[in-house]
Amino acid sequence: MFKPEITDKFRHLATPFYFYDMDVLNATISRCLLEAGRYGFHLHYALKANSNPKILKIISGNGFGADCVSGNEVKAALDYGFPADQVVLQESGKRMMS
After folding, report:
1. Cα(81)–Cα(83) distance, integer angstroms
2. pLDDT (tens digit, 9 = 90+) per residue, 73-84?
3. What is the distance between the alpha carbons of residues 93 and 72, in angstroms, rounded to a whole number?
4. DSSP the chain
5. Which residues are CB-contacts of 71 (< 8 A; sequence separation ≥ 6)?
6. Strand 87-89, strand 65-68: pairing
7. What are phi and psi of 90, to 5 degrees?
8. Distance of CA 79 to the CA centre of its chain
9. Could you tell me if 67 and 58 are in contact, meaning their C-beta atoms sit under 8 angstroms apart?
10. Which value, to the nearest 10 degrees, does the dihedral of the CA atoms of residues 36, 39, 43, 49 take?
11. Phi/psi at 70 (nearest 5 deg)?
12. Nearest CA among 27, 77, 83, 17 for reference residue 47
C-alpha cells in the first residue's frame, strides 16, 4: 500500500532510489509460506528479481531456497544464507551448440 507519509521523506534524494517496505515484505513472505505449506511445496526465490543483500538475508532466513541463473547469483545466494542444497542453477534461455 502506498504510504505518502513515508515516501514524501525521500523526495530530496537523487534517483535511482529504492525503498523497501519491510512490513509488506514480511507479510508477503508469511503468506507465501502459509500457502506453500498447505500443499507441501518448498519455495525458491529468484535472485534475478532482486539481489539486495538485506532482502536476500531476510528471504533466506525464512527458509526459502534460491533460484539462480548465473554463477554470480549462486555465489550471492550462498553468501547471504541460502543453504547450498537449496540453491538451484537454472540455465534458462541458453542454447547448447553442437
Report:
1. 6
2. 999 999 999 999
3. 17
4. ---HHHHGGGTTSPSS-----HHHHHHHHHHHHHHHHHHT---EEEGGG---HHHHHHHHHTT-EEEESSHHHHHHHHHTT--GGGEEE--TT-----
5. 89
6. parallel
7. -105, 125
8. 14
9. no
10. -60
11. -155, 165
12. 77
Main-chain dihedrals φ then ψ at residue 24, nearest 5 degrees = -65, -45
Residue type, 85: D
Residue corresponding to grid cell 537454472: 90
| Residue that is written with C-alpha cell 536476500 in the block | 56
1-53 pLDDT, tens digit each: 566 777 788 888 888 888 888 999 999 999 999 999 999 999 999 999 999 99
User: Whole-model pTM above 0.90?
Assistant: no
Question: CA–CA distance from 76 to each of 26, 43, 67 (Å)?
Answer: 21, 18, 11
Give yes or no for a contact between 29 and 36, defined as CB atoms under 8 angstroms apart.
Answer: no
